[in-house]
Write a structure and sequence with these properties.
single chain; alpha/beta; Arc Repressor Mutant, subunit A; D-Maltodextrin-Binding Protein, domain 2; seven-stranded mixed sheet; two-stranded antiparallel sheet; 21% strand; disordered N terminus
Length: 318
């Protein structure tokens, strides 16, 4: 029979906090312990498990693969205990702080309009929303749910698909009036092509020319950290940008932006996922209801694919 003379739940709580903060001292402060006591507790845990859980450096603590796996199991177990206690005590409604990471365009167009209804439905949940187009580490950033665009890299994270989007190259009519309308992808080499200021999976703008893929490098005089910044620059007539369709549908419908080279658009589909740790009942109730709410309510606006620029609106730009 297993020995239960050690408070294993307390060990798990301390271990999880150390992983999230990456520091013995900060974790010790949360539990009113000394850093040396936290260090000894985790050393005993590693000895009992016969596995190294942490890589220790002078600047930061990071989990080993075994530590990462144990961390995921710990947060599931602790979430189950939390849900069980709330259910038994008659406090079964989801509650607590929910940390969400999303790209700026997704937040502006999709997420933020859904938040008021979600908060009115789940009054016990508080939201901490971080907007960034860059991929965040859920453990290091202490994030419960992150919205990611495009193919997912292999990881231990669990994902729920929310929808699909395509990319479209756009420009403002005033920009095209000054610089001309590109008729083939090769013409883009004479245009100011705005790009993201960080490395993306696809290094360039893809087009289909005579049945083959043609990649144009986005070279211009401005790079930006997020898609909303690129949208604003395109609206101001600074240059061309390649953005998610859902982000610019309304701008295109109003004539503020015009789709460029749609006849050469490969039409490749980018999935949009919510990624998180744990799955099924092995996650906090607040995370579960948020994912269910997103799945039921997220709608990504689409263009009529392949539609060429409106001739009337393009007239002044030619």
């Amino acid at each position: 029979m297993a020995r239960w003379d050690i408070n294993r739940l307390a060990e798990m709580q301390v271990f999880v906090r150390v992983i999230e903060l990456g520091n013995f001292s900060l974790a010790a402060r949360d539990f009113r312990m000394t850093p040396s006591a936290v260090s000894k507790l985790l050393s005993r845990l590693e000895t009992r498990l016969q596995a190294r859980l942490l890589n220790r450096t002078t600047r930061r603590l990071t989990p080993t693969p075994e530590g990462h796996s144990f961390y995921e199991q710990c947060i599931r177990i602790l979430a189950d205990v939390e849900d069980a206690e709330r259910s038994t005590s008659g406090q079964g409604d989801p509650r607590g702080l929910l940390r969400v990471s999303a790209s700026v365009p997704f937040a502006r167009e999709v997420l933020l309009p859904l938040i008021p209804e979600f908060l009115s439905r789940y009054t016990g949940i508080e939201l901490d929303i971080v907007l960034t187009d860059q991929v965040v580490n859920l453990i290091e950033e202490r994030t419960d749910v992150a919205i990611r665009h495009g193919p997912l890299e292999s990881s231990r994270l669990v994902a729920r698909k929310l929808g699909e989007t395509r990319m479209v190259v756009v420009a403002a009519p005033q920009y095209l009036k000054r610089h001309g309308l590109p008729s083939v992808p090769e013409d883009l080499t004479r245009h100011n092509r705005l790009d993201f200021g960080y490395t993306r999976t696809l290094k360039g703008w893809p087009f289909i020319v005579n049945g083959s893929q043609w990649i144009v490098s986005p070279v211009g005089n401005v790079t930006a950290s997020d898609g909303e910044a690129l949208r604003q620059l395109a609206l101001a007539g600074v240059g061309l940008a390649r953005l998610d369709e859902f982000q610019v549908v309304e701008d295109i419908e109003s004539g503020k932006l015009l789709p460029i080279l749609q006849a050469f658009n490969p039409g490749d589909i980018d999935p949009v996922h919510a990624v998180f740790l744990g799955q099924g009942t092995q996650m906090p109730l607040r995370v579960r209801v948020f994912l269910d709410y997103l799945s039921a309510n997220v709608q990504l606006k689409r263009l009529e694919h392949g539609q060429e620029p409106d001739e009337k609106r393009m007239g002044d730009a030619r």
